[in-house]
Design goal:
Helices cover about 40% and strands about 15% of the residues. It has helices spanning about 15-20, 40-45, 60-75, 90-110, 125-135, 150-160, 170-180, 205, 215-225, 235-245, 265-275, 300-305, 315-330, 350-370, and strands at about 5, 10, 25-30, 50-55, 80-85, 140-145, 160-165, 185, 195, 230, 250-255, 280-285, 290-295.
Amino acid sequence: MVVDLEKGQPMWPDRRLLDLFRIDYPIIQAPMAGPVLHEMVIAVAEAGGLGSLPTAQLTVDQVRAELATIRQHTRRPINLNFFCHKPAAIDAAREAAWRDRLAPYYRELGVDPAVPVPAVHRAPFDDAMCRVVEDTRPEVVSFHFGLPEAALLARVRATGATIVSSATSVDEARWLEARGCDAIIAQGLEAGGHRGNFLADDPVRDCANQAGTMALVPQVVDAVKVPVIAAGGIADARGIVAAFALGAAAVQIGTAYLFCPEARVPPLHRAALRQAKDNGTALTNIFTGRPARSLINRAVRELGPFHGDAPAFPLAGNALAPLKASAEARGSADFGALWSGQAARLGREMPAGELTRTLATEALAQLSRR
């Protein structure tokens, strides 16, 4: 046990990320696109954790508006998160095959199979978003799917931001460290949402070989000198304590925050999370074209979990959108992505700030007994 000799209180075993991020608790709220907007970021930041604003589904103007609202309510450090994938080229044959595969569901739900489908917005980091970083200067900037091109990354670094990205393997962690990341998120197989893998030519095939959090974190810790953030399957104090035992300096928590009232989770998704089981999720490419962990619903069972005709990221979701809308109008979550990690059963329904403080308090109490 590590104790503050002046106050006689238990301390965190590793303070590197507390000092680097200038936060009170080594808890990072995962940047979950869709469920997380300013309400969640403000609550977590004010509680002493690191609130993270995801931008992948937002326009530049929306990001600026969200940041303006956040800064009106907190001056604590925050994390601005970006995808940095390469936009997929349209493959007409693959698109047609995917529409053909979905056609029976269109007919079943009374949707015209030829109806134009909306384009799903998941924009990668670019010059316009980089200007947002330069103008607003968030304390932490994190990336998913690797890092942006060197010139953009240099501009981010010039703002003084701490730079973080996700790794799903030791090779990816070393790659990120070599390019100047200040900390690395070791994302285990258990995590909900999209895999952060980026070195493999085929992300779908690569995820079949990915290590779980328990195996991945200590190997990444041994391989790099920068602090490591454990992510995947961590939803309570036991997971936080285990992450520190593995050598992590902080944890990133996602699914547990989906139970908070600040999370913009649709009622059908929230109801499914409440009924989640340990074996009730799967990695699937059908919703976006990249591997992502979702609760298992009809679409995952019947179309996946992996389907060769699903268009490349993020195009696969376009043709599913009318099915999702039609099913939800009937009270069904059969065709929508229900992102969740494997530890959803550990989720507790409480405000995000309270959850952050509770997790920290309970973890410190367990550490004090060690």
